[in-house]
Write a structure and sequence with these properties.
Layout (H helix, E strand, L loop, with lengths): L4 H4 L2 H37 L4 E3 L9 H5 L5 E3 L3 E3 L9 H5 L5 E3 L1
Antiparallel strand pairs: 1-4, 2-3
């Protein structure tokens, strides 16, 4: 089998240098993979959080959830409502609700 040009002429030291470069490249790729896997896990975690859901029977319309919602997804009128398109599932409203009327689904 013919060898690639970088191996055919160089002898042992050229091959060793090429092998060292390949190992360095492989290590760099491994680091990139670790970073990408970490990012993918973070995104999956965010996506699995769900959105806020308000139990109208428990809600006292105090406004605590509306005040802490960073995206403005919660509005109060006759009932509290969640705009699911705006809700990021951060859970701030769940923590703020004194009557435990909010859960993430």
């Amino acid at each position: 089998m013919p060898q690639p040009p970088e191996f055919a002429q160089g002898g042992g030291t050229g091959q060793e240098q090429q092998l060292a470069r390949l190992r360095e490249q492989a290590a760099a790729i491994e680091e990139q993979l670790k970073m990408l896997r970490s990012r993918a896990a973070a995104v999956q975690s965010e996506l699995s959080r769900g959105v806020a859901s308000i139990d109208a029977q428990r809600c006292t319309l105090c406004g605590a959830c509306e005040a802490v919602c960073p995206t403005g997804a919660i509005t109060l009128a006759e009932t509290a409502r969640v705009d699911t398109a705006k809700c990021t599932g951060c859970g701030a409203c769940v923590e703020a609700c004194p009557s435990s009327a909010i859960v993430l689904n």
